[in-house]
Amino acid sequence: MAEPRGVIIAAPASGAGKTLVTLALIGALRAGGHRVASAKVGPDYIDPRFHAAATGRDCVNLDPWAMRPGLVRVLALNAAAAADLLVVEGVMGLFDGAEDGSGSTADLACLLGLPVLLTVDARRQAHSVAALVKGFAEFRADCRVAGVILNRVASVRHRAILETALDLIGVPVVGALMEDAGMVMPSRHLGLVQAEEHGNLGALLGRAAASATEGIDLDRFATLAAPLRLTQKPVERLAPLGGRIAIASDRAFGFAYPHLLDGWKAAGAELRAFSPLADEAPDADADAVFLPGGYPELHAGRIAQNKTFLGGLRKAAERGALIYGECGGFMVLGEALVDAEGAAHAMAGLLPIETSFARRKLHLGYRHLEHDGALLWPRRLAGHEFHYSTIAREEAAEPLFSARDSAGRQIGTLGLKCGRVMGSYAHIIDAAEETA
């Protein structure tokens, strides 16, 4: 088997079309006979589902801020093991990360030794594109911008102008995607509309792949990819929540990191999916229940009517199962969830909180978290918070985490615990430091 190679698709800023360019490349490469795996930089849940639809295999998150370097290397190698090309989609702008810039796509490129292809939104640009690309190519000597993919190009003449300008700085143009109103990916408050909710995803992926086949030099792209020559050492993963874990999984509860679930399975845990939206209860013999994040605020009325699901959670609590909810899962463990129209819907009532999507405030950022041993994980953890809902009412209960932001500033406590029922708005990604 050939040595796996990798490349990172980045951009100067969010909104340049990285996801669509990545999907187009994956489709075109697969049509050309390549075995393609993918990864997404940072704590994104939504883009990886589109990747999975394009590659036919799971997409892993690689997070240089929240993951230990050893885990990043292991996950990258595992993802690339059954492929000849690993295509990694960056996050935000190439050098954007946490508040101090750490954890950026550029940091990941340096950690893995991979080249960067810069996706440039060419709309309303001509020769100035050269100044933009030159600045990004020279900003960090340890981050190699190996080429450019022009996106949203207006015409053949426009492409020629852009390529002439970029010739002057010696950064090769690997290809271009023309502006196409038929390749639009709708969004909502937490990012793109989920892949499984897209009305015509197959057609979109096919159209994008055809565009890349026509406009990108795929042989040159494959040549620019670098070998993943990484030393793989064993890395202790976060322990499973239990031996038999019931995991909520549907459109309302879809935000679970594959690397966590894979780690739990590798440790011997049995994972059993169930759908709260289909009014399914967690298995009666599960010793742990995991409610991931997602969009319960969009389905609050339906969830409130699903008595089998809510009753099953209460029965699990009564028999002493560990019940853990993150973000949306945390909201459902509370007493009520207020939807966008201001209507309150009764939830499981296992934690003394009421959350509201009518009273919105953006909470976004990496988190340093510490707990007192409530979870069978290292006491110091790294996570991420991204939600618009707020806590409308909260009664006295033990906090789950003490929290600091990415700059180390204390931000109080996050989450609650009542016996073996616990949760918070934070999504846990990894241990905060190497474990023995």
What does this structure look like?
With 436 residues, this protein is α/β, with parallel strands linked by helices. The chain folds into two domains: 5-227, P-loop containing nucleotide triphosphate hydrolases (Rossmann fold); 244-431, 3-Layer(aba) Sandwich (Rossmann fold), CATH 3.40.50.880. The chain has twelve helices and 24 strands. The strands form four sheets. A ten-stranded mixed beta sheet has the order 12-11-13-14-23-22-21-18-19-24, with helices on both faces. Strand 15 (336-338) and strand 16 (344-346) form a beta hairpin. Helix 1 (18-31) packs parallel to helix 2 (47-55), helix 1 crosses helix 7 and helix 5 crosses helix 6 (156-167). It is elongated. The mean pLDDT is 93.
What topology emerges from the helices and strands here?
Blueprint: E1 5-10, H1 18-31, E2 36-41, H2 47-55, E3 60-62, H3 69-80, E4 85-89, H4 105-112, E5 116-121, H5 128-139, E6 145-153, H6 156-167, E7 173-178, E8 187-188, E9 191-192, H7 201-215, H8 218-224, E10 226-227, E11 244-248, H9 258-266, E12 270-274, E13 288-291, H10 300-305, H11 307-318, E14 322-326, H12 328-333, E15 336-338, E16 344-346, E17 353-356, E18 363-370, E19 380-387, E20 390-394, E21 398-405, E22 410-418, E23 421-424, E24 427-431
Parallel strand pairs: 1-4, 1-5, 2-3, 2-4, 5-6, 6-7, 11-12, 11-13, 13-14, 14-23, 15-17
Antiparallel strand pairs: 1-10, 8-9, 15-16, 17-20, 18-19, 18-21, 19-24, 21-22, 22-23
